[in-house]
Amino acid sequence: MTEDNNRIDLEQDDLDEETLFIVSQTFKALSEPTRIRILHLLSEKEHSVNEIGEKLSLLQTTVSHQLRFLKNLRLVKYRREGTTLFYSHDDEHVMNILKQTINHARHH
């Protein structure tokens, strides 16, 4: 066994309960079409809740609910400008997984 294989084995052994929970919640976030659409939109640039609703033809309450879920997982972040919140993605790793999965789906 090479040193690289040993390193992989060690990483697999390090899946504690918190890590497993975060991984499963991340995949849960990516398993819902509306959240995928929102994250894909935010991969381009930041948007306000109203802009997200308009561009994706979603109710503001739906957008807010999904953004809260994504924010709790630290997949999106926001900045306030006056009374408006502007959301952007907050995890390059997850965005890369999303982009790769979209590319995979488009090539089938």
TrEMBL record:
It comes from the Bacteria. InterPro entries: ArsR-like_HTH, HTH_ArsR_DNA-bd_dom, Metal_resp_trans_reg, WH-like_DNA-bd_sf, WH_DNA-bd_sf. The keyword Transcription applies. One of its GO terms (molecular function) is DNA binding. Residues 15-108 form the HTH arsR-type domain. PROSITE patterns: HTH_ARSR_2. Keywords: DNA-binding, Transcription, Transcription regulation. The keyword Transcription regulation applies. PANTHER family: ARSENICAL RESISTANCE OPERON REPRESSOR ARSR-RELATED (PTHR43132), HTH-TYPE TRANSCRIPTIONAL REPRESSOR CZRA (PTHR43132:SF6). This is HTH arsR-type domain-containing protein. The lineage of its organism: Bacteria, Bacillati, Bacillota, Bacilli, Bacillales.
